[in-house]
Structure formats: structure tokens, C-alpha cells
Specification:
Elements lengths: L1 H23 L23 E2 L5 E16 L9 E17 L2 E15 L25 E14 L2 E7 L20 E12 L2 E9 L11 E2 L4 E4 L6 E10 L2 E17 L4 E18 L8 E10 L30 E3 L6 E3 L1 E14 L2 E13 L4 E5 L2 E5 L4 E11 L5 E19 L16 E17 L1
Length: 461
């Protein structure tokens, strides 16, 4: 028995040894190494390394739902409007021997109706509460490449915020009369330490989301702007420190103006300019996060740098018709002599943000501007064409209350008041949006005002 038992144990041991030797010769199937996404803390929260690279990426965005009601000046006009907007931000940064290489783009999709119609691109333009519209219940959608630029050391190239702008509607739901434009540019920024920097930028006003080109008018002749020889030249000097920020900026713009008149036909070059100064003050002595913006600007032949587009604004005196040309232009041409005159203007902006609690804040804001257009346009009064000097003055004031129950979510309401005054009376629009002569039932108006309210729910991530 012992002999049999010894033979069986020996055989089992031999088989195990042979099997182990054969197993050692089989190919190994180890799991591939896993490359985990790593947090990139060099540029703030939300950045992570793109696997396999040294580039840090942040993906963010916004969804906004907004609703407004306002003064209704025409039976064919809606007294309300709705807006839905989606935004996607992509920010990629890489540390190099020459400094940070940054690529950023922002893309927006917007659907708007009613009082929002006509301002669906970006966040630009005054939304005139009560502007006469001849169609009701209309909606429009738009895709907007808001920003797309490359920054490499001191160079900024692509579509970016104008370096002329300072307070560019950073707060509030509504927009003020202020320079706020994203456009194609090529800029160089020099930094001097202690928060000081200076920038020179070549900016293509024809690609801007804000209206920088307001054209030319002539009461009795066909005038227009021709091609330009170079883009706008913008320069700014800026300081950013613990107390806040300050900036002084200027712009030079060129226009080639043609005129087909009674005694003069030809074209000539004209130069316009704008200057602006602003300060942003941090007010932690009131509450954490409190901020005050103060800004002033002046323009000569470049009213777009004040935030003025091609129309006057709110209410029954809001837009141009053949009988009553309420338009804003940078230059006018005398049809007899061919001489040109530039339009001038100035504006003041003040905005304050105050936190009542860390979750509850308010913003008080306002802008005031005056234009001297230096031209008269034909307005039909009693059926007879007569020149009218308009020179508008505009006041915009508003306030809001915003609750942020969780990080990235804003729920708020805002009230906006706008008043426009003209130097001369013009024909008011009727309920159909037309401006009939006095003899046909029309009436004159020198000033008008409007009020609107907004409710917004917005999520940023």
C-alpha cells in the first residue's frame, strides 16, 4: 500500500511541475495602462489636462430663459417678448517658454420674439421697450460666433472684445448706451508690472456686434460711405490692482464719403475719433463683491463708440420712415458745396452692484447721452417737407434684484426706464406704425418714454 501511495503522489507532483513549466511559457495578457484625467490648477477652477498633452482645457457655458413686458405703442405690436439662449465656451491654455498660449471661443444660439426681435446677435444693442413693430407674434433664431481668438504672449488675434471698451454691459439684464463690441482685431499688449498695461489694436468695425459704422446723410442729395483705407486704430492704457481697475482709451476711424449733389459730385476722406475714461472700484467695506463702475466718453464722427446705432431708441419716435427720418449718422454732406460736418456726442455711465447677502444682490444702473448731429433732415409737417434739427438726449435707468440659491444659478427681476427727448417735434407713429401728416390725423411729439420689466432664470457652468 505504501508503495502504491508513493507512486501516486510522485506522479501528481510530476504532472504539476510539467504544467507549471508550460504555463510559464504562455504569453502574458496584462491590462493596458490607464491614463486618468488630471486636474490643472494653474489657471483656476474647472481646468483639466487633455490626456496625452500638456494643454489645460475648460469647457463651460450658459443657458438663459428670459421674459419681458413693456410699453405697447401699436396695436400690431406684442406687449411682451421671450428669449432662450444657449452658450458654449471652450478655453484651452498651454504654458510655453514665451508665455501662455491661449485659444478661446464662445458660440451662442438664440431664439427671440416680441420686444426682443432684432437684437438676437450676442448681447448687443439697446432693446427699445415699446418700439413700434408692424408685425406681431414673430420669432427669430440666430447663431452667433461671439468670440474666437488666440493669445500668444502679447499678441491677441481673432474675434475679441474691443480694447476700447471698459464697462461693456458686464452687469444687468438690459444694455446701456456704452461701447460694447466684439469684432475681428489684431492687438499687441505691453505689460509694465504692478498691474499696468498698454494696448494698440487694429479693429475691423464692419465685423462688430455693436454698430461702429453709422454712415452719412444728406437732406437733398445721394450720399454714402465708400470703402475705407485701414481699420480703426484703438489704443488703451489700463491698470488692474486690488482696489479695482481704470482705463483710458481712444480710437481713430476713417471714412471715405461720396456725394452726388446739385453743384458738387465727388468724394473725400474724413477722420473721426472717440475717447473714453472709466474706473471700476471694489467696495469690500460695504459688502464682499460690491463694485462701482463710472465711465465717460466723447465722440466726433464716430458715434458708434458711444453705443449709438442707426436709430434713436424707444417709443413712438423709434425708427426711420420715408416721411420722418429719425436716423443717427456720423457725417452729413452739404449738397450744394460738398462740405461735410461731423456729428458729436458724449455719454455718462454709472453702475453699482451690491450684495445684500451672499445669495442676494442688486444692481443699480444708468446712462445719459446727448448728440449734436449738425444736420437737419426732412420731416413732413402739415404735408410740407421742412428741415428739422433733432439732436436727441437719452436717459436710461434701471434696477434689479437677483437671487442665487446655488452656485451658478441666477433668478432675478429687472425694471428699465428709457426717455428720449428731441430738439424739434416730429411726427408720432399711430397704432399701425405709420406716421401720417398733421392734416391726415397725425400729431407731433418732442419726447417719449417707455418702461419694461424682465424676469430671468440663468444657469452658468
Amino acid at each position: 500500500m505504501k508503495l502504491v501511495k508513493s507512486l501516486l503522489l510522485g506522479s501528481a507532483a510530476g504532472i504539476a511541475a510539467v504544467a507549471g513549466a508550460q504555463a510559464a511559457d504562455l504569453p502574458s495578457r496584462k491590462a493596458a495602462p490607464v491614463e486618468y484625467v488630471r486636474v490643472c490648477s494653474a489657471y483656476g477652477a474647472g481646468f483639466f489636462y487633455i490626456p496625452g498633452t500638456d494643454t489645460c482645457l475648460r469647457v463651460g457655458g450658459r443657458v438663459r430663459a428670459e421674459y419681458t413686458i413693456g410699453s405697447r405703442f401699436g396695436e400690431t405690436q406684442d406687449a411682451y417678448g421671450t428669449r432662450a439662449r444657449g452658450r458654449l465656451n471652450i478655453d484651452a491654455r498651454t504654458a510655453t517658454a514665451y508665455g501662455t498660449l491661449r485659444t478661446f471661443f464662445r458660440y451662442e444660439l438664440t431664439n427671440s420674439s416680441g420686444l426682443y426681435s432684432g437684437t438676437i446677435g450676442g448681447n448687443q444693442g439697446i432693446v427699445p421697450p415699446g418700439t413700434v413693430r408692424n408685425t406681431a407674434a414673430t420669432a427669430s433664431s440666430a447663431a452667433n460666433l461671439d468670440l474666437a481668438f488666440v493669445q500668444f504672449g502679447p499678441i491677441t488675434a481673432g474675434r475679441a472684445q474691443s480694447f476700447f471698451d471698459f464697462y461693456a454691459n458686464d452687469f444687468t439684464f438690459s444694455t446701456l448706451r456704452t461701447a460694447d463690441s466684439r469684432l475681428n482685431l489684431l492687438a499687441y499688449t505691453a505689460t509694465f508690472g504692478s498691474g499696468f498695461s498698454a494696448t494698440v489694436s487694429l479693429e475691423d468695425r464692419n465685423t462688430g456686434t455693436g454698430n461702429r459704422e453709422n454712415g452719412v446723410v444728406s437732406p437733398l442729395a445721394a450720399s454714402t460711405t465708400l470703402g475705407q483705407d485701414f481699420p480703426d486704430v484703438v489704443a488703451s492704457l489700463r491698470v488692474d490692482q486690488g482696489w479695482g481697475s481704470a482705463q483710458l482709451s481712444g480710437a481713430i476711424t476713417q471714412r471715405n464719403i461720396s456725394n452726388t449733389g446739385i453743384l458738387f459730385n465727388g468724394s473725400k476722406d474724413e477722420m473721426g475719433f472717440a475717447i473714453q475714461g472709466g474706473v471700476k472700484l471694489n467696495l469690500p467695506m460695504l459688502a464682499a463683491g460690491d463694485t462701482l463702475f463710472l465711465q465717460a466718453a466723447y465722440a466726433d464722427g464716430a458715434l458708434g463708440y458711444l453705443g449709438w446705432g442707426g436709430q434713436f431708441g424707444s417709443g413712438r419716435i423709434g425708427s426711420a420712415t420715408a416721411a420722418n427720418q429719425l436716423i443717427v449718422a456720423d457725417w452729413s454732406v452739404n449738397p450744394l458745396t460738398g462740405s461735410t460736418k461731423s456729428a458729436t456726442g458724449w455719454s455718462l455711465v454709472a453702475v453699482m452692484r451690491h450684495f445684500w447677502t451672499p445669495q442676494l444682490r442688486s444692481e443699480l444702473f444708468g446712462s445719459y447721452s446727448e448728440l449734436k448731429l449738425n444736420y437737419t433732415l426732412l420731416s413732413q409737417v402739415n404735408g410740407v417737407a421742412a428741415p428739422r434739427a433733432l439732436d436727441p438726449k437719452e436717459l436710461i435707468v434701471g434696477a434689479n434684484l437677483i437671487w442665487s440659491p446655488v452656485s451658478g444659478l441666477d433668478i432675478g427681476v429687472e425694471v428699465l426706464y428709457t426717455r428720449t427727448e428731441l430738439k424739434q417735434a416730429v411726427l408720432a407713429a399711430n397704432n399701425a406704425g405709420a406716421r401720417p401728416a398733421i392734416g391726415a390725423g397725425g400729431r407731433l411729439v418732442k419726447s417719449d418714454d417707455a418702461i419694461a420689466g424682465r424676469f430671468r432664470i440663468q444657469r452658468d457652468f
